[in-house]
Amino acid sequence: MLLDFQVTFNLHRDVLPWLSAQGSPACDTVEKSSRTLRIVNVERDGNILYTWKGVEGFTGVGLYGPLAKQNEMLYSFDSEVNIISASVNSGKTLLGLSYCHPTYESQSRLPSPVSRYLALLIELKPINNVKVLKAVDSSIRVQFLCPAEDIYLSYESHLLVVSEEKYIDEFHITTGEEDGKRVVIKNIGQIPKDRLAEDFVWAQWDVSDQMLFYIVPKRAGCVLHCIQFYPDGNFKYVLEFPLEISLDDQGVSLINLGYDPPEERGRGRITPQNLQVFTNKTGGLCLFYCQPPNVLLEFTYMVAFLHKGCSKTFKVSTTTDAKQLKKVSFINIDSYVAVYLPDQFLHLINTRHAELMCYHLFLAAEDARISGMCCDCPLQTVLKTQVIECCTGILFSVSINQEQLFKFLTESRRDCERLAVLHCFLLHLDLQPQQETQIIEWICDNLSTCLTFDPIQEFIIASLHRHLSLETAYLDKLLPYTSVPFWSQHIDGVSCTTDITDMPILKMGIFKGFWEKFHSELECMKQAQQRFLYSNHMQRRDWCRLISEVNTKEKKIDVYQRNILENAKKVLQNMDTRKYAAVERIVPLNQEEDYLQKDLMGLMMVKLKDHLCQHLHVAKNKIDKLVLDFVCKQLDLVCQILEVVWRRHVLDHSILCLDRSGNSSEYFAFHVMCQITDSASRMCMPLPPGFQTLHLVLAVRCLPLANLLHYIDSGVLTLTETFVVKLLKELDDNVTNEKLKCSIILRLPENICEKVHSLWDHAISNNLIARKYVKKLLFRLNQREVTQQSPTDRSPLINFLPLNYLIMMLSEVEDRELNPFEEDNIDAAFLEEIALKQTADLLSLQQY
């Protein structure tokens, strides 16, 4: 079961024993209390209001406090009434209540009702005045505002009254203390009120953020409105959004505003519209709408992503006729909303990154099963990650079961499912070290099975996004969150069409809380978010230029280059600090001087700084820290992958010995490092110090010579000075090793060859020494000729130009007073011998 449902409240477990222990006439019949016990409201602070009926026409209203796990009686009626909704203010001094009376008979404790439905305001400390707020023939719902702050709780309370006659009022109640204990209503004679909305057909109360959404029908469709309430009782109309859907105007649908008792269900009442609005903590606002069935064996639902400016319509093939399907449930899990249709499918819709289908997770058949639920009763989201099953009176907290999610990842064979699961793990779930290790192990085992995306790139990019986005607001809009910007594959049984929607209209001047984040999302959408995402490919041209310069002596040390080197130095220093501060690492990555990787580290820092300075308006030192964290964390993630491989296969420092052959575990490590190198190359990403040397050592141990040289020539392996020194010093000069050394020496770049050629006393090495010296000598003489003699003064002695140049060079040498070989301490006879051998070899002459 992918979704984990934990029971946080159960009427029969948490309330019924308390009712049985009361010993009052209200509880004489436990059976009747059990049968009529039901939830009527869940408040913002988690308090749960419930009602039950006893013998002799008794109806009670109780409250369960989740923190203290205690029940208390709030109010009771001497007659049986069908309570529809109830709400208590934060101080538990006032109770708002609406009910439907089954008859029109007078009651002893209540004013004689003139209408079927009544809304009451009741004093609780002590139980005293009862004020009738509304008496109408249509259903009424009540809801106290619950401010986050406590500054107004002792003096003011604000009660929403929602009528199915299509209006919403807010009552402002002033309370005060009398005799030091009594809390009474000061303005009970005439309670002021505001008319908030009229002519609506649908309304939803968001208890977490204290927002009221409602929909007003128009000719061409309808308009979604939102009212934000504040702790002082003030409110603002903050949102208007046109909807291209048509809602039934014959009745009113109310979400999270009380629940009709069983006695009232089916008495000519309109079936509620299956439409809900959900928010998430990053500023996402989504509207989910289940369309009435009109096609056999197909289920259709629409999601409007208001913060993304688009809507998606999903059509899912079913095994049952659409008219016989059970009721669908929308379950909010913050970053995801689950669309659950019993016995058919479970669709986890990504509300933060909704662009592509590969970011959503669609499960069908047995994978979509949710056990322990009443299939005839849809689940209703009341708080974020909390749902209620009204027919059973159970409140659940909902989360994604990480064990089941990982199991699904290991069993899945489709890339769309794998990417969706990885995306969920890396970006939305709080992973423990053990779980992160499992993810890395799966990535290493499935490097060749993922055909449409690179799991190493996904791990690095998504982990960086999650790590850094927590540090600064808006940074998540500037860093990529996935390695897959495009996706064209379809999911079996599901079709999806995307439409561009109008921009929501915000009516606020100053944005706070959720609306500040929502406004940030809209601004990012307006300015084409894709242009602001940092991309490693932006620096490829500069990276290629650095590669071409790194082997030349003409490399210019200008201001830009000095900036790159200084930034690289910061990265290396920070890596040293992290190395000693972190958990002991077993991968033998030794700090070494790798100019190419050092330049790339500095280049990445420079490019990312420029990107953030352009779009992120924070202090320069803050940006410097973010950029340094980005590059260091990137290198840490590569080290983390290697650590998992080393620990899993029990590898140690003996792996650095070059005179032994590798085993299967070492070959696996080599294969993973090849994949990391390829991923890093395509991302223009630096590798940790020592990575390439370790990679070369593993290659020598695991590969035949021909394959090793092919990997070097193709760029998979990059020769380093540390590796070559190790190779020349540790291996003796047997036939095999001599062939290996010769092959490596011939492939060395100039800057390394000059440093290591003297370490090996061999004909090949001596040959290279002589060739490089002659080249150096000729270059010096050529420069002197250019400065002392113009081209017109030269007259060729013979027509063979190479010989002509040699004669000129020898003449120049003879004229010099000093021995030309004295500076480099090279014997002329040695040089002559090498030259003769090379000439004979080039002419294919047999030497005796």
Which helices and strands, and how do they pair?
Layout: E1 3-10, H1 11-20, H2 30-36, E2 38-42, E3 48-53, E4 59-65, E5 70-77, E6 82-88, E7 94-100, E8 117-124, E9 127-136, E10 140-144, E11 156-163, E12 167-178, E13 182-185, E14 193-198, E15 202-206, E16 211-217, E17 222-229, E18 235-243, E19 253-255, E20 275-279, E21 285-290, E22 298-305, E23 310-317, E24 329-333, E25 336-341, E26 345-350, E27 361-364, E28 380-383, E29 386-389, E30 394-400, H3 402-411, H4 415-428, H5 433-445, H6 455-469, E31 494-500, E32 505-506, H7 514-526, H8 540-550, H9 559-581, H10 595-615, H11 620-648, H12 664-682, H13 691-702, H14 705-713, H15 721-730, H16 735-746, H17 750-756, H18 763-788, H19 801-815, H20 828-842
Parallel strand pairs: 15-19
Antiparallel strand pairs: 1-30, 2-3, 3-4, 4-5, 6-7, 7-8, 8-9, 10-11, 11-12, 12-13, 12-14, 15-16, 16-17, 17-18, 18-32, 20-21, 21-22, 22-23, 23-31, 24-25, 25-26, 26-27, 28-29, 29-30
Helix pairs in contact: 3-4, 4-6, 5-11, 6-11, 8-10, 9-10, 9-11, 10-11, 11-12, 12-13, 15-17, 18-20
Describe the overall structure.
With 848 residues, this protein is α+β, with helices and mostly antiparallel strands. Among the domains are: 225 residues, no CATH class; 79 residues, no CATH class. The strands form seven sheets. Strands 19-15-16-17-18-32 form a six-stranded mixed β-sheet, with no helix packed on it. Strands 10, 11, 12, 13 and 14 form a five-stranded antiparallel β-sheet that branches. Helix 10 crosses helix 11. The longest helix is centred in the C-terminal third of the chain and has 29 residues.
